[in-house]
Write a structure and sequence with these properties.
- It contains 2 helices and 5 strands, in the order E-E-E-E-E-H-H.
- It has a 5-stranded antiparallel beta sheet, with no helix packed on it.
- It has one domain (about 5-75).
- It starts with a strand and ends in a 12-residue tail after the last helix.
- It is α+β, with helices and mostly antiparallel strands and about 90 residues long.
- Helices cover about 30% and strands about 30% of the residues.
- The protein is globular, with a radius of gyration of 12 Å.
Length: about 90
Amino acid sequence: MPTISMFYGLIIRMYYFDNDQHNMPHIHVEYKEFEAVIEIPTGRVIVGELPTKQYRLVSAWIEIHADELMADWQLAINGEPLFKIDPLR
């Protein structure tokens, strides 16, 4: 699963061919012992949890990079290499 961005201890990943279990475009986020799957269009947590502060950071990052995330999603479901996305600064 390629890492597409990392910032403030958060690791953002996207699986290849990952549209069977969760049909909605999404990312996988890890922070310390926490893991969450978050929808790209809505920012809603599908599975898992993150601390509130980290969830807000990821939500802001998703909003800023929504177009790039959707482009990476299309590449991922086709099994093509993904582009890195700038971290939140």
